[in-house]
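Two proteins follow. First one:
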Amino acid sequence: MADYLVIVESPAKAKTIERYLGKKYKVRASLGHLIDLPRSTMAIDTENNYQPRYITIRGKGPILQELKKEAKKSKKVFLAADPDREGEAIAWHLATALGIDPSTECRVVFNEITKDAIKDSFKNPRSIDMDLVDAQQARRILDRLVGYSISPLLWKKVKKGLSAGRVQSVALRMIIDRENEIKNFEPEEYWSITGQFEKSAKNFEASFYGSPDEKLQLKNEEDVKKVMATIKGDAFTVNRVVKKERKRNPSPSFTTSSLQQEAARKLNFRAKKTMMLAQQLYEGISVGKEGVTGLITYMRTDSTRISDTAKGEAVAFVNETYGEEFVTTATAKKQSSKSQDAHEAVRPTSVRRTPESLKSILSRDLYRLYKLIWERFVASQMSPAVLDTVMAELQNGEAVFRANGSQVKFPGFMKLYVEGTDDKEEMKDNILPEMEEGDTVKALDIEPKQHFTQPPPRYTEARLVKTLEELGIGRPSTYAPTLDTIQRRGYVTLDAKRFIPTELGEIVHGLVVEFFPGIVNIEFTSKMESDLDGVEEGIKEWVQVIDEFYKDFEKNVELAENEMEKVQIKDEPAGEDCEKCGSAMVYKLGRYGKFMACSNFPECRNTKAIVKYIGVKCPTCKEGEIVERKSKKRRIFYGCDRYPECEFVSWDKPIERPCPKCEQLLVEKKVKKGVQIQCTECEYKEEVQ
């Protein structure tokens, strides 16, 4: 019989930890929370210091009973839930249910599931941190008060199945505000002049800068004509050459949000998928003789701190693999004031466990994410890259052009890893020929171009997570579920990986803004996050924080119940009849936007998607028209409207004209630079201007 009972959250972890601890320990899993607020009611006593009423979660009773039996047979119980607020609350609920004094040394935490980390943690058990418990409880109660007050109003006034929450309402506001910016954007004309130059049989590019005295903006064609009139001949004099050496430092190891952002940019992973895969890497994968082993540290963190041991291992690895000159000498950067620094950054548990050594063991997606985490961590301990930068100023008459170039002098960390970017193209080396002041270069071609300013881009998941973090809205563990919720509710859709608000999202947002302005106020929400962090740090009392919020919120709820008018989402005529019963078809608003349905519902339940024709004949059957469709995962593809008679499909958008070389189908293909037109049969390609 085992002497000690250890309770973790996940069954996957239980087997691994039991193997590390030995025969005296029995490890069991709680499968997450066993005790929580009931789903059916608010369960917060607003008249009695906001005391919550907890119950055993439906279906979890047998698990709790089994844990109670095991606890009675054990000399001591260790509560080893995850090392965060949520895990601390689970440990507290378990202590209460099992009759364990929370002030005793019953709590064990570890940042990684490795043999040494597990054994060390059991040498240093501690009491349950009630500040962490209160912080989790305060957030849970606050979210319950908001969600269970506003959501029923939306059900009554708009439609069932809607919700509003603290973080999701702000995220939706940001998406809608950005959409309004785009709609109201008025483009402004501007021009550029780009020259192709030659020096010592080497060609390079330079752009118009201004006059010898100042930088000039080219606002219209008249400005361009004035500049072009001053250029005489094709000889330009090199006025100035500025050479500098610039260092580029590596990015620190991942936090939760930076991991989500980089996985979106480089791997095309949604935030939810990134966290699911990271959870698997943390809980453990079977790696041959070692058995099931945690491959990364805990993935919910806002810290970039690295332990001295991990740092030492990484430095030794870099020295052995790349050489001493690639080892960093920099000291760690200071943590952000918003970071709680509860545990380390996301990193591999052993730098010696290289991605290549695990490639045959891990699934494709697990391998790609592990490789990203491993490379980012190792690169963070490498020396800066050294770049030689050159700026050359060229003059002809009153026109001054500038050429900028850079060349990697020493790759440093860039030999292994370069951080992703939201821009379409990453910075590339532009190597200039050797030039000295007084030299003459020849202009091969000078081309003016008209441009128009572009509206701000819609949010991608990566941009939205980054902006929420910068504004202090939400915390690392909230981003993935928040983005998932606003999509599941039908408030936003993703088009080309960018968020677009739906009509339903705008309706809900408008009501929340009108009656609950504090909920969508960015400064207010950020301050609330700071107050909740103050509870975690033990400098704020959770009841007071909730009370300060609820006094005004309660008045808003009462006002909304009395004055919020019911929103009638009217069905629009679709202009065609139902093929099943002959009644008129109408447009209805659903979870994923508009669709067509029979007006004779519920007698007739015929529905169909709104067909979007793109003006291209089907290349297969020559009779049908190509329409835009959506897959089950909401990805856009193109098919023949005569399906299933004709089964033509394409992920790329077909265009009307045929290939000029082989007369076959041309499609618009998304590439890094934007969009490229390609032939589906031959190698013909053309850039889209």
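Second one, unrelated to the first:
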Amino acid sequence: TAEAFHDDLLAIKNSLLENDDSVLISGDFEELLQAVEVFGFYLATIDMRQDSSVHEACVAELLKSANIVDNYSELTEVEKVAVLLKELQEDPRTLSSTNVSKSEILEKELAIFRTARLLKDYIGEEVIKQHIISHTESVSDMFELAILLKEVGLVDTERARVQIVPLFETIEDLENSNEIMKQYLGYDIVKRWIKNSNNYQEIMLGYSDSNKDGGYLSSGWTLYKAQNELTKIGEERGIKITFFHGRGGTVGRGGGPSYDAITSQPFGTIKDRIRLTEQGEVIGNKYGNKDAAYYNLEMLVSAALDRMVTRQIADPEELVDFREIMDGIVHDSNVIYRDLVFGNEHFYDYFFEASPIKEVSSLNIGSRPAARKTITEISGLRAIPWVFSWSQNRIMFPGWYGVGSAFNHYIKAEEGNLEKLQHMFETWPFFRSLLSNVDMVLSKSDMNIAFHYAQLAESEEVRSVFNIILDEWQLTKNVILAIEKHDDFLDESPSLKASLDFRLPYFNVLNYIQIELIKRLRNNNLTDDEISLIHITINGIATGLRNSG
């Protein structure tokens, strides 16, 4: 094992030191020792991940083949948990049998879990530490994974060699996460699993689906509150809740300046570690050369340390008022966002006609298809093409829509409310980061270009959606600058402003070329060779905007 090899190297090192041969330790030997400490025999720890619906289907098949339950999926949540706990706690046998035929999906999943067991046995426990459950909606979702891990010997009554990590993604799931984790952490078998993991329980938070569901403010605020509540549950039980932030490259998917994002996390939610995803599109910029990589890694470490050791800046009593204010504003924002996205009968057609979503969907981007099934509704569309398309037509919709009206309603409700928001911006890191990201997104939008994309829509009713968006954009700009007490976007980021000013003329031109190419494509006036030009413009605009998908 890597541990045994490391012990041998230490024995050699100590022997050399004792015999005054320290000169032999420097150089290659030290580098080898360090490499084993950092990389083991596996280079990098990897996560497993699967959707909860797949786990349920597999467990239902196993229970049926073992003559335990014929219709597992039809049981209530309480009944499901009772069945699963009985199998986990009272019955040491496995449910699968070599003599019973299995569906293709069950065979595939069990093969993956067997491979995980093999890797952990031969390469070391650290090679795979977590299994993430996408769309965690209940306690049974977590115990279903435990059943599958038990099948290959990775879980027993005392120990889980792979930690079960729920991923809460939608607004509804984030709001329910508090109750789900309360129940899950209350079971004795779970307490033993966590005790064997040094009292750590990881929870993954999804930024993309929550934003598409309820808009930017609703997503950010729901995530903030969920972290506070989940941290409190852990503290009450003596468990260190650690968060894995599934951030995308764009503000609409949790992106934005990393340092600000970490230092604006709810106070007390970063104990001694934080995990976050870096999107493929930004990895080249952040870690493409040694100097940039050192800078960005140091920034992440210093931000995490800052959040861990810094005393709370905002007055705790004031925070209670701030949160009440935010609850009202966020509810209003959610209604405004959903009224357009899911309530306006022409919005769907506007999105598909006035953005290059169809062309984006044909590109090989992202790790999954553009839609979960087929692109017939907004809710089924995956987050990357959704955000990416709004970036391409320069509206940047997911990063700001609904913000302006919600704040404006609050400001107009009572004299002095604008001053309250300005005070929140000055004293509350979370609120400051929230608004600064909106500022940055608006600075990258261009409603003149967006107008030309709107002309791609065939009917006047569909094109009229643009006017609704334009009015909200102008209102959001005015309100954000008023709260920040700024004259223009990016007043606090002169270097980014200068960089954008330099880049904009080059990729603005690509937008106009793209519009013309899409127009010709939809009129069947483009050859197959020329269609690739659309993809070139898409890549060029994405590169110019940087955090675009």
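SUMMARY FIELD: The radius of gyration is 26 Å. The CA atoms of residues 343 and 359 lie 26 Å apart.
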